[in-house]
Write a structure and sequence with these properties.
CATH superfamily of the largest domain: Glycogen Phosphorylase B
CATH topology of the largest domain: Rossmann fold
Number of strands: 17
Shape: globular
Radius of gyration: 21 Å
Distance between the termini: 13 Å
Low-confidence stretches: none
Structural class: alpha/beta
Largest sheet: 7 strands, parallel
Number of helices: 14
Mean pLDDT: 94
Strand content: 15-25%
Length: 406
Amino acid sequence: MKVLHVLAQLPQRTGSGVYFTNLVEGLKKYNDIEQACLYGTTKDYDINILEKKYQYEVVFESEKLPFPIAGMSDVMPYKNTIYSEMTEEMLNIWQKNFREQLEKIKEEFNPDVIITHHLWILSSIVCEIFNDKKIIGICHNTDIRQAEKHPHIKERYVTNLLRLDKILSLSDAQIEDIVKVYNYDRENIQNIGAGYSEKIFYPLTEYKKKDKVELVYAGKFDESKGFYELIKAFKVLVEKNENVTLDLIGLARDEDKERIEIATSDIKNLKIYNVASQKELADVLRTKDIFILPSYFEGLGLIAVEALGSGLRAVTTNIEGLIEFLGEKVNNSEVIEYVEMPTIYDTDKAVEEEKPAFVNRLINKLELQIERTKSSRPLPEEIFKEITKHSWKEKIETLYEIINTK
């Protein structure tokens, strides 16, 4: 059976990009499956997840496509174009380039099944071109956000999704949004969740005594991630206790660099840097103690699961998909603490007046996890076993069954 994976942006560099890559890697263990993939890229980006002849690319910032990759989030961890700011000419060029590659794939590879990521423009084109094939769409929540914020784009360019044979969601709550936003048949939506790569994200075998408790954030340096509230919370923490550090891992946009520099200039024990790959991120994570995800909007927050799988405790906002995903046993343990969000409007914006109280709640939960870490660094064995149930192995087996269902 031939399976084509489709993504409109870079593999690996975002949650959906990691999901895309892990599906390709996971399905390699089945000898009856031959794979190809299509993704957006730049001339400077290189990835080897399949043989080169099975990796089809749409190259942005090139002669044929002279603007940065369009990102499903308005803020991406790399230079990007915002869908809502694209002109009609840009959208036409974007569609033309992806359409040409899909037609080429149809002729050369002729897949039996297509797995297309994001319920958005590219998936609609996939449904048109491969209308006689089995097509599975995967919702990542950023697509729902785009559709809700920019219905005029959805109505004009996302017109064929009812042809999808099945949609996979990351949570039960997401199913309701898919039905509401896309008017898609609930019976053909399945909550598959997500998984973390246990081959990359795993804990240290031994924890040596350290003088400091080390906190870490990895993600976009953006308002919607609670990024600036985290900086404010850490400033208070480190003034009360110098034996705590914070690493901020990610890439700052040029227009945000001055604000970030001002916000962090007088804070001790804080480092800002980026990593080049999932493996590099995992290598850093497992040396830290507490992972923080103060985000105002997440479909799942898989990075928090990866951190738990790396043996860290976590402090996150009360992300509905994450709470559902981890389950009662993990949620009621001491390995993760949830912080109540401020009131959210326009999908991912926090009411300004409520941010100071949110910062205080964040500080309280961090202090709680810091004390637990000082008391006992390794996670309880029985809880870590629960976390490992969320690795990709189980998810890939479920996907394989879906692919093979008539």
